[in-house]
Amino acid sequence: MRINKELMKGSTAILVLTMLEKKAMYGYELIKELERNSNGVFSLKEGTLYPILHTLEAAGIVQSYWQEAEGERKRKYYQITEAGMGHLKDKKEEWVSFRTAVDRLLWEGQS
């Protein structure tokens, strides 16, 4: 099922941070993991992901570093910072409140 881009807009950063909470990743790896973990629902383009990562990095929520894999070219990896962990915790709590309110409104009175 395709998700409307407007619905995704507000949740993409929290999804990216949740993936980076598990481990540091380079951009293409992050795109593939988001897609795999969402059963294809979240399929980001590089043009969507990298501006999010750059914004998060400018805010100190993620940091990047270059690393060379065995016999491969260098890749830019992103990892969540300590400040990013606190930010993610806050965003998850905010998401639960939002989701609960939306669910209540959508399904209230239905059996």
UniProtKB/TrEMBL annotation:
The Transcription regulator PadR N-terminal domain is annotated at 16-89
Highest taxon of source: Bacteria
InterPro entries in alphabetical order? Tscrpt_reg_PadR_N (IPR005149), WH-like_DNA-bd_sf (IPR036388), WH_DNA-bd_sf (IPR036390)
Concerning SUPFAM superfamilies, the annotation shows: Winged helix' DNA-binding domain
| Residues of the signal peptide | none
The protein in question is named: Transcriptional regulator, PadR family
The source organism is: Brevibacillus centrosporus
